[in-house]
Amino acid sequence: MFRVVAIKEIQAKSVLRKRKKIDSWFVSCYGMNLYRGCTHNCVYCDGRAEGYYVEGEFGTDVEVKVNALEILARELDPKRKRLPFKSSYVMVGGGVGDSYQPAEKTYELTRKTLELLYEKKFPVHVLTKSTLVERDIDLLKTINEQNRAIVSFSFSSTNNDISAIFEPGVPSPTERLQTIQRLRKEGIACGMFLLPVIPFVTDVPSVLQETIKDAHDVGIDFIIFGGMTLKEGRQQHYFLNTLQQHYPELLVDYTHIYKGDAWGNAIDSYYQSINKTFYTVVRQYHIPVRIPPRLYVDVLDENDRVVVMLEHLDYLLKLRGQSSPYSYAAYAISQLTTPVSERVGRLQELKGVGEATERIIKEILETGTSSYYEQLLNA
Ligand code: SF4
To answer: Does ligand 1 come within 6 angstroms of the Cβ of 36?
Structure first.
């Protein structure tokens, strides 16, 4: 279907978003959106949901923050900061508009942002669905050599036919996999965000098997997996219309798992079941299911390193169907304003820290990592 793209140039008041605590999915404390709206037009995109306030017709209308560089340069100026910047990856992408969507060919906001982040010596984590990122391989390579760069690609599967239905404006999975190969050849770490998988379409064992094998074959460094949310309103309406056209027999199944949760979540038992399937397949390939420590131990300060490792441990145990105490401890440490090493001897005073957690924290502080965590991550 022919779609007329409408670009609107806007003046942003701010660009850099600081998170309240480190995000252990991306190993990042900072993020940004250079574009609002996205002509990749993925059918499941939650940027379409009313709660994100993206103006206009999602999929055709895009707002471009034309003054983003000027604002970012100010926001990244250490002289204007009361507190020093936290050492972490700066996330470029995600949110309500892909940083390498077609408008980037004209505006080059992402490229200029990478140049600025290089100049300011920040490690960079890019998340995209576009092969246009190859245009910036030279720059990403330089950033990686200076301070580390990760490029992650989101996929709902590596099946080209399914992608053509649900990701009509995105380069095919085959092309994305080729880009991963090129980036890895240049020494740049690449991740797959297998997110969202589409219920009963790309979450089924045969499609997951094919996708994870393809990721393994191009040498992916990690895979992060997650299910789909479907918020009532524009997002749900748009998605179910497409589903009706291509998979009408699945409509009833959707009513069994999406039951009007305010955040668009499916029922817990559905997520538990797809996590189980994912884990069964991914463990055959020994691919880390979180960003591995070799990509972040030299980037983070000690508190954030402990927080990320405890949150990863929490996920790894839950993925195996076990309970975990680690997220409480991670949260308590994320709220500290002094180095956690100064608390050694009194760690159990922190909420959620028992004897076992204390041992793990001490090992991370002494060696930079935890053998238990590494063992689970690489299993
Ligand atoms: S690429 Fe990302 S932001 Fe763009 S439409 Fe797809 S899911 Fe949404």
So the answer is: no
Residue 64's φ and ψ, nearest 5 degrees, are -110, 125
| Residue 2, pLDDT score | 56
pTM listed for this prediction = 0.96
Is residue 117 exposed (0-12), middle (13-18) or buried (19+ Cβ within 10 Å)?
buried
Is-contact 163 170, C-beta < 8 A?
yes
pLDDT value for 57: 84
Fold classification of 6-294 (topology level):
pyruvate-formate lyase- activating enzyme (3.80.30)
Mutate to test the pocket of ligand 1, among 38, 166, 172 (most ligand atoms within 8 A of CB): 38
Give me the residue spans of the domains in the chain: 6-294, 301-377
The third-level CATH classification (topology) of the domain covering 301-377 is: DNA polymerase; domain 1 (1.10.150)
pLDDT digits (tens, 9 = 90+) for 176-209: 999 999 999 999 999 999 999 999 999 999 999 9
For the CA of 95, the closest atom of ligand 1 is 3
CB of 176 closer than 6 angstroms to any ligand 1 atom = no
Please write the tens of the pLDDT for every residue from 144-186: 999 999 999 999 999 999 999 999 999 999 999 999 999 999 9
- Cα 97 to ligand 1 centroid, rounded to whole Å: 6
Residues 6+ apart with CB under 8 A from 277: 203, 204, 205, 208
**Does ligand 1 come within 6 angstroms of the Cβ of 40?**
yes
